[in-house]
Amino acid sequence: MAVPKRKTSHSRKMKRRSSVWKLETPTNIVKCPNCGEPILAYRVCKACGFYKGEEIISKNEAAEK
């Protein structure tokens, strides 16, 4: 049975594992056509409540929550 000849050092072990935990930024960030805030594509804007030119969430509903 194969057995490692030397102990794997802490830094070598962490170098190997480092790429696993990297987070990626969302690539589909666009400007809201109504207010200009950056939002995720195909989502309702949290700032103004518009989606595809229609008001989905009124500002009164957003203020209550």
Task: Jot down its keywords.
4 strands; two-stranded antiparallel ribbon; 23% helix; 2 helices; two-stranded antiparallel sheet; alpha+beta
In short:
The protein has 65 residues and is an alpha+beta fold.
Main sheet: strands, sense, barrel: 2 strands, antiparallel
Stretches where pLDDT falls below 50 for ≥5 residues? none
Helix count equals 2
Q: What oligomeric arrangement do these chains adopt?
A: single chain
Structure overview:
- The chain is α+β, with helices and mostly antiparallel strands and 65 residues long.
- Helix content is 23%, strand content 15%.
- It has 2 helices and 4 strands; from the N terminus they run H-E-E-E-E-H.
- The strands form 2 sheets. It has a two-stranded antiparallel sheet with strand order 1-2. It has a two-stranded antiparallel sheet with strand order 3-4.
- Strand 1 (29-31) and strand 2 form a beta hairpin.
- The longest helix has 9 residues, at 10-18.
- The protein is rod-shaped, with a radius of gyration of 23 Å.
